[in-house]
Amino acid sequence: MSRFEKKTVVITGASRGIGAAIAKRFSQEGASLVVSANEESVHSVADEIKRDGGRAIAFVGDVTHKASVVALYDAAEAAFGSVDVSIQNAGVITIARIENMTEAEWDKVMAVNTKGVFLCAQEAISRMRKHKRGGRIISTASGQAREGFIFTPHYAASKMGVVGITQSLAKEVATEKITVNAFCPGIIETDMWAYNDHAWGKLLGDYAPGELMKEWVEGIPMKRAGTGEDVAGLVAFLASDDAAYITGQTINVDGGLIMS
Ligand SMILES: NC(=O)c1ccc[n+]([C@@H]2O[C@H](COP(=O)([O-])OP(=O)(O)OC[C@H]3O[C@@H](n4cnc5c(N)ncnc54)[C@H](O)[C@@H]3O)[C@@H](O)[C@H]2O)c1
């Protein structure tokens, strides 16, 4: 399969977890990749892609700073000419009772998960408009964009914000062959989920490591946690020509955890 031959894909939060899995999937389907994260280890994802015969550059930057986001898309255009698909995936979470949640936690989660999506989408769309070749804007929301979970009001607000950004931008660029969509992973086995298991587990009871995850996975109709590859399949579809008439949508990829 080479659905994305001659396409350039920028993806944030690609040093590990869901983002790294999405990047590898696009590379397997022929895309040139710009993998970005706020940690140096993102270089090893680009190296792995290149070792497997793909094309990739790594960019270390912070999605909460406009100048860093501009530099990311500049680097993508310098390396590969244009940006066809922009995937806003960088995200952070903290878990705390309301009385212990700090203003700094609120600000950070909103800055990465919501402002970061806005800044990247803004930069990608302005460049897609210039090139007049259309494009795809795809952002990572969460099951928490459907229903807030306990002890994470900032995260729920930040991910519901991603849905709002998606709908508003989809309307603005609808006649320009640029689609704007988001997706909601459920329980996906990554570093973030390991933190969730530990932090929620401490507040919700005396859970041993892995126990809370096990209990929540039992509540998934498919009875298994998701993988980065499960998510990557949906994202590749949304980026493909087959999804040309889909815009402004937010799609769950969660084994049936939330049905909406
Ligand atoms: N794992 C899950 O169960 C789950 C469920 C729903 C939604 N999500 C969302 O999926 C996305 C990826 O999650 P994951 O589980 O792979 O997380 P992860 O913690 O494994 O990876 C997070 C990535 O975001 C990057 N990042 C964090 N802050 C950044 C910043 N300021 N600038 C640039 N990059 C930054 C990190 O470097 C890393 O690459 C996130 O948006 C997360 O909220 C995850």
Give a quick precis of the structure.
The protein has 260 residues and is an alpha/beta fold. It has helices at residues 17-28, 42-51, 66-80, 103-131, 153-172, 191-204, 211-218, 228-239, and strands spanning 8-12, 32-37, 55-60, 85-88, 135-140, 178-185, 250-253. Nicotinamide-adenine-dinucleotide binds at residues 12-19, 37-39, 62-64, 89-92, 112, 140, 142-143, 185, 187-188, 190-193.
Number of E-type strands:
7
Strand order, sheet with most strands = 3-2-1-4-5-6-7
Mean pLDDT: 98
The distinct ligands, each listed once, are: nicotinamide-adenine-dinucleotide
CATH fold group: Rossmann fold
- Helix fraction bin: 40-55%
- What count of domains describes the coordinates? 1
- CATH architecture descriptor name: 3-Layer(aba) Sandwich
Query: Which range does the strand content fall in?
Result: 15-25%
Structure description:
The protein is an alpha/beta fold and 260 residues long. It has helices at 17-28, 42-51, 66-80, 103-131, 153-172, 191-204, 211-218, 228-239, and strands at residues 8-12, 32-37, 55-60, 85-88, 135-140, 178-185, 250-253. The protein has a single domain, classed as NAD(P)-binding Rossmann-like Domain (Rossmann fold), CATH 3.40.50.720. It has a seven-stranded parallel beta sheet with strand order 3-2-1-4-5-6-7, sandwiched between helices. Helix 1 crosses helix 8. It is globular. The model has no long low-confidence stretch (mean pLDDT 98). Residues 12-19, 37-39, 62-64, 89-92, 112, 140, 142-143, 185, 187-188, 190-193 line the site of nicotinamide-adenine-dinucleotide.
